[in-house]
Amino acid sequence: MTDRAGVLVVAKAPVPGLAKTRLTPAATPEQAAEVAAASLLDTLDAVLSVPRVRRVVAMTGDLEKAAQATELRRVLRWFDVIPQRGNNFAERLVNAHRDVADLPVVQIGMDTPQVTPWLLGSAIAAAHTGDAALGLAEDGGWWALGLKDPLHAMALQHVPMSQPDTGSRTLDALHDLGLHVSPLPMLSDVDTIDDARRVAASVPGSRFAAAVAAISTAGQPIS
């Protein structure tokens, strides 16, 4: 049975001091890395539950120094792990889409641990039905991009990333290519401690919720 799409996770190794630094000082660097690792692991679990897809992780950073390195290596055995290539984040995204090969691609990051197999399946269906699918994030960015033709990721080349208007500018860039873009539900990325609290409350029992609960502020656990 052939794969119907590629699901591409763009990830950074959750190394203490380098991962989720905006969670400090509420979290220690080690706790922030644990939150990042939990977010990535929950995301990978969701991808593993989507049938008939090629599962790809475009990784950067030193996994050997990462929080939850053993568990990450165990789960990543079920994925094709490729290195990120490029001089900036937009270029790395474009190249990662190209590296998935001749399949429609749904690309997500590791900052939406609340993502579900159903949401990923909806993104795949939308990319098949139209030309593209885009899930905007509450901070003005986007959490998911689905493309029927992965070469259309070229639209990202000149879009500034991690800006309040990244989502709207990505949508404009896709429209400039003449693509029909289906909207996906809006989700919250995890950038700040308030984001982490809110997302953790939406996924009780998850690795992510447990990692956030382990952070203490003034000696009181966040829940």
From TrEMBL:
Residues in coiled coil: none
Protein name (Swiss-Prot/TrEMBL): DUF2064 domain-containing protein
